[in-house]
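Dear colleagues,

For the upcoming journal club I promised to circulate an example of a predicted protein-ligand complex. I picked one with zinc ion because it came up in last month's discussion. The inputs are reproduced below in full, followed by the predicted structure.
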Amino acid sequence: MEGLVVKSTGSWYRLLTAEGEPYECRLRGNFRLHGNKQTNPIAVGDRATFRLEEDGTGTVTNVADRKNCLIRKSIKLSKQTHVIAANIDRLCVVATLAFPRTTTGFIDRLLVCAEAYHIPACILFNKTDLHDDALRQELARLRSIYEEAGYEVLAVSAKTGEGLDAVRHLAQPSGRAKGTFAKPILLFTGHSGVGKSALLNAIDPRLQLRVGHISDYNEKGRHTTTYAELHPLAESFVVDTPGIKEFGMVDFTEEELSHFFPEMRRALQGCHFANCTHRHEPRCAVKQAVQEGTISQERYNNYLNIIDSITETS
Ligand code: GDP
Ligand code: ZN
């Protein structure tokens, strides 16, 4: 039998069949399919085959290859990593220009993570009902920057419902496929207070998430829950990662970073040096594009800031 892992507690996993039938499943003790660098061999979003036991539970026998997975470093100072979720179809970065204002530096860090993890990303600017003319102009400016870079940008309001049809569209299976495996897996991320819970509730009132509730569990430095769950959201699934507010940056080198900025990735073939970091090197096509205005100065500045933070920690 085949199922989608929608819940993981570390020892038991809930798998949904194509028809949506849930089965509680266990792993065999020696189950290690993705090497031993990961603390959890299967995660929510994984597609697995299982054998039905006499007591009605299942035993996982195989896990399908992942198209991507979101990793968080293990708590201990080990090389082990923890997979938060696998096979994510879309990362929805939720931002606000109204309170609490999201900086493009923060948005760009999340987009870099998405690129590095091979997860398609989009940006949702929420709370448009609070926009005055100045913020409307700012939104138009950012929309053109991010759309030119290659991202879908949605202006939404959980309060008035503006733009929610476009978000509901993201929560629909593409094509005509039906059933559990056709449903896209979405992950909403962004600062606390930007309206993620309010948006999810507005899209699917069955969720009944608490709005305006700031969990301080993580901040107290206590051991946080590392097990995620997939909740139904309209015709899709949404990843809920209790206790995980931001996922860790991927490790990459200075030379790699520009590959995670789509507009730079397109320009960098023109650089004179193959390992150009687009800072001080002569004959740099990226710097040239910034000067000519085809690459946004703001995105480039954020790029430089991220490079600085890599070199500081390495
Ligand atoms: P989360 O921490 O990202 O899940 O944010 P919440 O969904 O808990 O929302 C944080 C606060 O923003 C709450 O007080 C919400 O009522 C408010 N909020 C959320 N969406 C909107 C919106 O579209 N417009 C306005 N004016 N307030 C919103
Ligand atoms: Zn360059």
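Two points we might discuss: Residues 133-149 form the longest helix (17 residues). The pocket of guanosine-5'-diphosphate (ligand 1) is lined by residues 126-127, 129-130, 157-159, 192-198, 211-212 (CB under 6 Å).

See you all on Thursday,
B. R.
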